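Question thread 4412

I'm putting together a teaching handout and wanted feedback from people who do this every day. The idea is simple: show students a protein as raw sequence, then show them the structure tokens that encode its fold, then repeat with a second protein so they can compare. Below is the first pair exactly as I plan to print it.
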Amino acid sequence: MKDYYSNLDEKIKKYFRILEPEFPEWLNEYINTKELLSQKYISVTCGTIYSKLFESDFFFSSLDHSVAVALIIWHFTHDKKQTLSGLLHDIATPVFKHSIDFLNGDYMKQESTEGLTTKIIEKSKQITELLRKDKIDISEVDNYHIYSIADNETPKLCADRLEYSLSNALFIYNVLDVKGIKEIYNDIEIQKNEESVKELAFRTKEMAIKFVKLTSYLSIMYRQHKTRYSMQFLADVLRCLEKENRISKKDLYTKKEKDIVKIMEESEYKNIFNIWINAEEKQIKTSQNKPQGKYYVRHGAKIRYIDPLIKGRRISIVSENARKMIEENLEYNMNSYVYMDEIETFM
């Protein structure tokens, strides 16, 4: 595989081989299209990788995620259309990923950028030619929601949720090693759910509970105080730069993250941006009262949780322990004002 795969980190290649030992060579031409390759410059961390508030410095890209989702779908279905829907599902992802949903006021659903998916595919000469060659209509691959293995409603398990859970655990939060990834992944199969719809599910109760423990932890990490603060902070700095015509909406889709970071570092917001970049976790504070004169964040974020199937039943029904872990996750309090003394109001 040229370009993408040849320059891929060996750790990611090893992870991909767990998801699908035999890489589907037909995917290569799709991956190496201009529109998909642009996704390799976007981190799945929604921009938090640039701050010392967060420990991870491993760059797992939006394209890495999309390829991994495609590999999971191919592994379980060997269906080209479903696999391509997974590969293309994040093709409209802008820099800083879901932080742009915060910019758009969509911090609870985080779906505001998905509407451009069809348009981007339609405008790509490379992708449309490949689809014509494979006799696949755009409508069969531009909406992965139509395939239950690729995507479904929370709290069901699908390829997208499974992938970001595994890769975040392995690369971003370092709470699972390769052996742990294999144990979970090798326990998964397709089952029929309560609605007689196909869904990724677990063979054993033990692995289903282990997965719930993992994803309940990750779910809180995705919306903990420093994460919500950072994603809204990035969104608000971008909002200010957009008002001042330093950055356009188009730039969020055409420039690399490092280019946008450079613009921030050279703007009048460079001081507060550098404070955030070099911040320590102890600087993140919470209060039940509005902090005067400080930049603060006070709202929730999308609650990501999974209640997987085990032999056709939800693990929360089968296991009291799993039910309690899910409930504790859902009860995480996001009502406080979150702020840093060092960053004053700038909007």
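The second pair follows. I'd like the answer to focus on this one:
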Amino acid sequence: MLSTTIIIPCFNEANAIEQTVRQIIETLSFERDRTWEVIVVDDGSTDESKERLRTLSQEQQQAPLRVVMHSRNLGYGAALKSGIQRSRSELICITDADGTYPNDRIPELLRLAEERDMVVGARIGQDVKYSKIRSIPKMVLVPWVSFLCGSHVPDMNSGLRVFRRDAAMRYLKILPDGFSFTTTITICFLRNRRDVLFTPINYSKRIGRSHIKPIKDTLRFVQLITRTGMYFAPMRLLMPIFLFFTTLFSISAIFDIFVLQDITDKTILMAFICINIAMFAMLADMIDKRSDI
């Protein structure tokens, strides 16, 4: 079995962090053939999380538990990257500290990941308690990410997943410090044709208040997906734009030829826009193909 590190980012999760860590350690204690450790990264918490983690660390001295402290809040992705950089395991498993994910299924995900690059716990199980406000943007973003990746993506930003550390290290410099970490690493793996499995899981109501701001974070997701799409799938991202302006050019040209019997400036402008988009897409695609990432 491959060695494993469980990384738990924590920011103001005093009500749930102890329960989460204890559950994971108890669950993994039955994995006797596997070398594992748990790294909790406190991302500058201002509640009692630090104190509870210190107490927990003293209580669990026999367990392979490490606590990393950030002096200030750097972000969800930054906490995960701190854990990944400190780990030397072959597999990385990430989960949240808020009690939403079924951490008792981590051993199952680890076994599935033995022969794959990433296993994602997709929140499409029979018992998913998900905010309706947060589900609305996903109705648009999930199909768009699926289009960019060229395959169906049932859950682009699940926080419970297992992936190979060596593969993640290749993309670490482009992975964001915020909540978009999971979306970006999903696109990175899929666009680079890595073996990714999505397996259904349940999702519970979180303990405590959510740190996600639906409107602000959705806008960040859109910006991130556009930027990552340009990085890994420029042709797929720009093709709809090219087709849109090509359609406008065709309509304008047909109208000019058969109605006005003259080529107008707007038709010429549309033609130049189409040519520029096509050239930019091909150039971006060539850069993407030559990239080592």
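Top answer:
Good format. For the second protein you could add a caption like this: The longest strand covers residues 36-43. Strands lie at 4-10, 36-43, 65-70, 91-94, 118-122, 161-164, 196-200.
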